[in-house]
Amino acid sequence: MVSVKEALQIITKHTQMLNSVTLPLISSRGMVTAQEIYSPLDLPPFRQSAMDGYAIRSHKEKEYSVVGEVAAGDGKEFQLKAGEAVRIFTGAMVPKTATAVIIQEKVTRQADSITINDEVVLESNIRPRGEQISKGSLALQRGTKLTPSAIGFLAGMGVTDVLVYGKPRVGIVITGNELVAAGEVLKEGQIYEGNSKMIQAVLEEMSIEGCTKYQVADNFEGTCEVLKKAFQENEVVLVNGGISVGDHDHVYEALKVLCVDSLFYKVRQKPGKPLFFGKQNNKIVFALPGNPAAALTCFYVYVYPALQKVMGHEGMGLERRQLAVTKAVTNILGRTLLLKAKILENGEVEILEGQSSAMLHTYSLANALVLVPESVDSVPKGGLVEVLMLPN
């Protein structure tokens, strides 16, 4: 059995990034850049009007002659003389000879002349060439997550393809005789299987989609067969249930038969003590507890940072903060406590009722986990605790 800190160190040591792959930009959402990206052009590539109005070449008077019009996308150039102006629209190319753009609300127009009703500020309402980024400058560092805004930024520079770290194929193996699919009629002793949907949902929050679900009853031969198939088809295998030491728990023995290297089994924590992490060649496997709240906690604390690293993220794990707790906490177990909690508007953190490893209702109200180390037996009201921010 290992500590929480030791478990995280082992995961970091034995988890490797996937190979990089070149993808169309639109297909790269949520992925991470595998190389630095430099701008192929100035952005904007010309002096650009920031407003609808008039581009002028300044002189001492308030009146200007309007000699033309420039709309967005027009490539025509005007050689303005002092005292001349052109009607211009947002995004349009500002004539090289223009000294300012005056917004239309500050102008009175009569026929082919305008009167400016404000002081002229040179270069006002003009986006200079390369204002956002200049040609050859670093646009995105290696290890940057491609969010919708990052994709839009690259698309605006004309980038069509990007080199990114791959997304892992993830298999979810669900074990248990008692589990039936939603929609079926429950018989005595049966429950609906929801953990696979929960795990799939949190994977999709990480932009990992299209995972494969496998389900197996509580028998040794079937467990071996399904796990073998899951390893063949995926880089990451997540097993849910069957990892304890009961007569009907076969996952641990099946993993040994499949020559999976056991890197740790059991963590000094509550909930989620019977957690397994191992490798089969370059593939990793987590065996999560069957109780849903314990499984989700183990996912957030251990699987989440592992998948981040596999996909090339520089940051590891959930964001952590030190916050004051609203009530005293006691820890008489000698294990690390991982408690469902909610951060309040005043910045304090409240530990919620209903900490059972089988209860997801409390999790649906939580936005954080409070981590109380195994070496700490109590925290007073108002004392600082380590808080893991959930991605929701």
Q: What oligomeric state do the depicted chains represent? A: single chain
Radius of gyration: 30 Å
CATH topology of the largest domain: Molybdenum Cofactor Biosythetic Enzyme, Chain A
Count, helices: 7
State the domain count.
4
Work out the strand percent.
25-35%
Tell me the structural class: alpha+beta
- The CATH architecture of the largest domain would be 3-Layer(aba) Sandwich
- Name the CATH homologous superfamily of the largest domain: MoaB/Mog-like domain
Sketch the major β-sheet.
6 strands, mixed
What does it look like?
The protein is an alpha+beta fold. It has four domains: 4-18 and 167-310, Molybdenum Cofactor Biosythetic Enzyme, Chain A (3-Layer(aba) Sandwich); 23-43 and 132-165, Molybdopterin biosynthesis moea protein, domain 2 (Alpha-Beta Complex), CATH 3.90.105.10; 48-127, Molybdopterin biosynthesis moeA protein, domain 3 (Beta Complex), CATH 2.170.190.11; 320-389, MoeA, C-terminal, domain IV (Beta-clip, Beta Barrel). It contains seven helices and 29 strands. It has helices at 4-14, 148-156, 195-205, 220-233, 251-257, 292-310, 361-365; strands at 20-24, 32-33, 37-38, 48-49, 53-56, 63-70, 84-88, 100-103, 107-110, 113-116, 126-127, 138-140, 161-165, 170-175, 179-180, 191-192, 212-216, 236-240, 261-265, 269-270, 276-280, 283-288, 320-324, 329-330, 336-343, 349-351, 368-372, 378-379, 384-389. Strands 8-5-7-6-10-9 form a six-stranded mixed β-sheet, with no helix packed on it. Strand 25 (336-343) and strand 26 form a beta hairpin. Helix 1 packs parallel to helix 6 (292-310) and helix 4 (220-233) crosses helix 5 (251-257). The longest helix is centred in the C-terminal third of the chain and has 19 residues, at 292-310. The radius of gyration is 30 Å and the shape is elongated. The two termini are 30 Å apart. The model has no long low-confidence stretch (mean pLDDT 95).
